[in-house]
Amino acid sequence: MTAGTADGDRREPDGTEQGREPDGTERGWRAAAREALYGPEGFYRRTEGPGPAGHFRTSVHASPLFARAVARLLCRVDEALGRPPVLHFVDMAAGRGELVTGVLAALPEETAARTRAYAVELADRPAGLDPRVEWRAEPPRRITGLLFANEWLDNVPLEVAETDSAGTPRRVLVRADGTERLGEPVGGEEAAWLARWWPLGGEPGLRAEIGLDRDRAWASAVAAVERGLAVAVDYGHLARARPPFGTLTGFRDGRETLPVPDGSCDITAHVAVDACAATAGGPPGARLLTQREALRALGVTGARPPLALASSDPAGYVRALAGAGEAAELTAEGGLGDFWWLVQVVGPAEGVADVFGDRPGRSTGAPGGSGSGQG
User: Fold this and answer.
1) Range list of H helices, the chain
2) CATH 3.40.50.12710 fits 59-156+213-302+322-354, yes or no
3) Using DSSP, how many helices (H) and how many strands (E) does the chain show?
4) Cis (ω within 30 of 0) for the bond into 284?
5) Segments making up each domain of the chain, as ranges
6) Per-residue pLDDT tens for 340-356?
């Protein structure tokens, strides 16, 4: 979840970092989270311990069915592209390489032989990773195949705004211990983004997470794809159901906690997926599906095996039953199944738009709720 964040330093005219007080103790959430997550001692830079999987559970960690479904998606993209000599698979925010490893293992031998796999991650390459995987800090360019970003955008740092007593949106400044205060009014491109995607009413205390940097990060990732598909999977919300007090939170040791930008915890916020979809652009446009819809289209249904199998093949029945339980978790309402899949077809790739079958996706303006908490 630490792939390039596409967020260069922003400076005031005097050269100081925007939002930082003269004594350096307070700054906007964007700068604070960037340092806490990706700085030299940041949460995602650490190599000791179990890594991110020790603090939260994603779909990749929940079941190998997820990686197999992504492998099935890659095969469909491959078929739609006419089986190119080199097929690219890019795992954005690769963590310890769990997803890319699972995808390679699930591919048919002929497809795997043509696949060039990349893991995009800021942390160091983990020991023992499949040597076929190229580890890098930024995605390659001119991708033909599938770029897949599972729970990446929620960790792209962003600014937080809150309305003051007069209803004016102001940037929230934060100290390393998590203490906040209101700073200057939101202006410029950030104010324009709020007005379009997350307008705050005049009531004091309303909060919004300004997703401008996430929009840009996603557009940059999509631009790396020449032919094929780009998919972002994350918990998020649409314009008709923005959370009135924001979603910024932390995760530590498997539990949700207060977001404290000192490097001790993950810092995450739900994604305004419709804004990202509109920013990526390009014909035939973005498609939004829930994870439940996407995985079912890829053959992950959660259906229980027939009871007769228990008599004819008891061990097979137990395995199938376990798989059904894992599939149910991946597609559950109120859980992982509510995650959004933002799907973008790129380039001259006839047929790629149909890789999810006939299941209709939502338009970017469709009503819908938030995804549930961190997986």
Assistant:
1) 29-38, 59-62, 64-80, 98-106, 109-114, 188-197, 212-223, 273-280, 291-297, 309-312, 314-330
2) yes
3) 11, 17
4) yes
5) 27-45+157-210, 59-156+213-302+322-354
6) 999 999 987 767 888 99
